[in-house]
């Protein structure tokens, strides 16, 4: 395959994010695709996937000719963490993401079409057989097989035209039934409860293979009523083509690989034991419980369908990367709330996608750090399952955990520079949620804000940092790097 130049990477990014099969071609052209033959969906694929996360940029894994599976079926992993997709993970990447031309950020509504590749194969009624598709047991202690890990769950608000896309774990119960675990308060949960309050089952479609951009927007926090389809269209510069599901009429991606279409009745009508499942905090915290199910009435799929697999791994793996869009969303929320002089936003490795957020500010006035911390704790992009927020001065490299902890160690007074807030939103997958709260349906917990900044009223008298200045360090590096290898970055 030919080499991919930087110019080509830029030109083809939108195409790769907007079409899974183009993505495959791009991954192969970039030398990042690994084809794996004959692996077993029972634990072996999950183990290979997890071991790939020992790398910061895991290879794109395409599992073919899997054990006990139809030869035409495939599983694709690491779609959103490949190097050619995410680029270099640093603060400059976040700034570049936020500097995208405004016209490219404007939502582009989806385009309704009559048909698409997703209808190359249609199974309805007795022909519905979920078990004919590969559904791995990803982790050793999982309570079942999960076909939905990087899926897109599609529901429509009965009170409006709002179509919501979400990513939730999906377990196979039998040939016609899927379990869907949705945390209380998530948009998918709010919408399904509206249908149930009307005495009706919730129409629902689940895509388990689709354009990578749809996985990005479905898993990200969005505003109530905001169309993820339109957001995705804005990101790739063209509308997402959708077709009506033949059972529910819900708009499904026209080029989706595999879609389940049906209805989710209220839990008192039908619910099944779901879980346990190894979740992203690194535990089996949600255990087993009765959860609502999707009664699948139709299955649509392309020829040679590709299922995307991206189960959670422990957040200590390098491959559990910082997600640039999530970091940018929190930065945007801080600025939208009027917090000035934000210098950077990052997430502490080990804290996964939510637990530990780092905010860098250039202090302008007394109370500035507290403003930043409180907004970060309560805004939509930072509200779910945050444990710790650390606010630091602008001289701290927030992408370096050692620098952040140095600021905590030397600029933070635990008594005077700490806020602990009760009653904050968490979820059943939070390993620290007490058992009594789980039993009562109380998914709230506390969170802490650490203000690891020089105290504003005597910041000018704070001891000077013992370090060579950056300008002089750069000058010395330029002078001596040809002779001293350790100076070369």
Give structural notes.
With 489 residues, the chain is an alpha+beta fold. It has two domains: 297 residues, Pnp Oxidase, Chain A; 147 residues, UbiD C-terminal domain-like (3-Layer(aba) Sandwich). Helices cover 27% and strands 24% of the residues. It has 15 helices and 22 strands. Strands 5, 6, 7, 8, 9, 10, 11, 14, 15 and 16 form a ten-stranded antiparallel sheet that branches. Helix 8 crosses helix 9. It is globular and about 75 Å long. The protein starts with 5 loop residues before the first helix and ends in a 9-residue tail after the last helix. The relative contact order is 0.11. The N terminus is likely disordered.
How is this fold's topology laid out?
Layout: H1 6-18, H2 20-29, E1 33-37, H3 44-52, E2 60-64, E3 74-77, H4 83-86, H5 91-98, H6 102-105, E4 111-112, E5 121-124, E6 146-148, E7 152-156, E8 163-166, E9 169-174, E10 177-181, H7 187-197, E11 202-207, H8 212-218, H9 228-236, E12 241-244, E13 251-253, E14 258-264, E15 271-274, E16 289-301, E17 306-309, H10 324-336, E18 342-347, E19 356-361, H11 368-378, H12 380-383, E20 388-393, H13 401-411, E21 418-425, H14 435-440, E22 444-452, H15 470-480
Parallel strand pairs: 1-2, 3-17, 4-12, 19-20, 20-22
Antiparallel strand pairs: 2-3, 5-16, 6-9, 7-8, 7-11, 9-10, 10-16, 11-14, 12-13, 14-16, 15-16, 18-19, 21-22
Helix pairs in contact: 1-2, 1-9, 5-10, 8-9
Tell me what portion of residues adopts beta-strand conformation. Answer: 15-25%
Enter the CATH topology name of the largest domain. Answer: Pnp Oxidase, Chain A
Mean pLDDT over the residues: 93
Uncertain segments are 1-12
How many domains? The number is 2
Indicate the overall shape.
Answer: globular
Structural class: alpha+beta
Which architecture name of the largest domain does CATH use? Roll
The named CATH superfamily of the largest domain: Electron Transport, Fmn-binding Protein, Chain A
> Helix share of residues?
25-40%
Number of strands: 22
How far apart lie the N and C ends? 30 Å
């Amino acid at each position: 395959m030919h080499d991919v130049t930087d110019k080509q990477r830029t030109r083809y990014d939108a195409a790769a994010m907007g079409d899974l099969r183009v993505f495959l071609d791009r991954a192969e052209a970039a030398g990042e695709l690994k084809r794996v033959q004959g692996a077993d969906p029972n634990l072996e694929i999950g183990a290979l996937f997890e071991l790939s996360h020992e790398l910061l940029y895991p290879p794109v894994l395409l599992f073919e000719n899997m054990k006990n599976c139809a030869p035409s079926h495939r599983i694709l992993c690491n779609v959103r963490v490949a190097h050619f997709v995410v680029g270099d993970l640093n603060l400059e990447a976040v700034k570049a993401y936020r500097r995208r031309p405004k016209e490219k950020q404007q939502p582009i509504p989806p385009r309704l079409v009559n048909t698409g590749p997703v209808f190359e194969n249609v199974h309805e009624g007795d022909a519905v057989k979920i078990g004919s598709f590969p559904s791995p047991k990803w982790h050793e202690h999982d309570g079942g097989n999960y076909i939905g890990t990087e899926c897109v769950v599609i529901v429509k608000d009965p009170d409006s035209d709002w179509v919501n896309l979400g990513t939730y774990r999906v377990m196979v119960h039998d040939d016609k039934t899927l379990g869907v675990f949705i945390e209380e308060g998530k948009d998918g949960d709010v919408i399904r409860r509206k249908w149930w309050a009307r005495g009706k089952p919730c129409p629902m479609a689940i895509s388990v293979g689709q354009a990578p951009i749809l996985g990005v927007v479905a898993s990200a926090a969005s505003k109530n009523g905001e169309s993820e389809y339109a957001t995705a269209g804005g990101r790739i510069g063209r509308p997402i083509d959708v077709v009506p599901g033949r059972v529910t009429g819900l708009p499904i991606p026209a080029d989706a690989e595999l879609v389940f279409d049906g209805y989710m009745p209220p839990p008192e009508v039908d619910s099944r034991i779901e879980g346990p499942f190894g979740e992203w905090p690194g535990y089996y915290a949600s255990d087993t419980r009765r959860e609502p199910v999707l009664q699948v009435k139709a299955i649509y799929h392309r020829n040679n369908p590709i299922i995307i697999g991206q189960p959670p791994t422990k957040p200590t793996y390098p491959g559990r990367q910082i997600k640039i869009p999530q970091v940018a969303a929190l930065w945007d929320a801080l600025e939208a709330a009027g917090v000035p002089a934000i210098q950077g936003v990052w997430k502490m490795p080990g804290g996964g996608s939510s637990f530990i957020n780092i905010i860098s500010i250039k202090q302008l006035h007394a109370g500035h750090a507290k403003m930043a911390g409180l907004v970060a704790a309560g805004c939509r992009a930072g509200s779910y399952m945050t444990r710790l927020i650390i606010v630091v001065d602008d001289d701290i490299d927030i992408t370096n955990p050692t620098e952040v902890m140095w600021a905590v160690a030397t600029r933070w007074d635990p008594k005077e520079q700490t806020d602990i807030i009760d009653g904050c939103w968490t979820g059943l997958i939070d390993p620290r949620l007490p058992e009594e709260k789980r039993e009562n349906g109380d998914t709230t917990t506390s969170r802490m804000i650490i203000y690891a900044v020089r105290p504003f009223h005597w910041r000018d008298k704070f001891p000077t940092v013992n370090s060579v200045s950056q300008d002089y360090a750069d000058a010395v590096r330029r002078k001596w790097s040809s002779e001293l290898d350790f100076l070369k970055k």
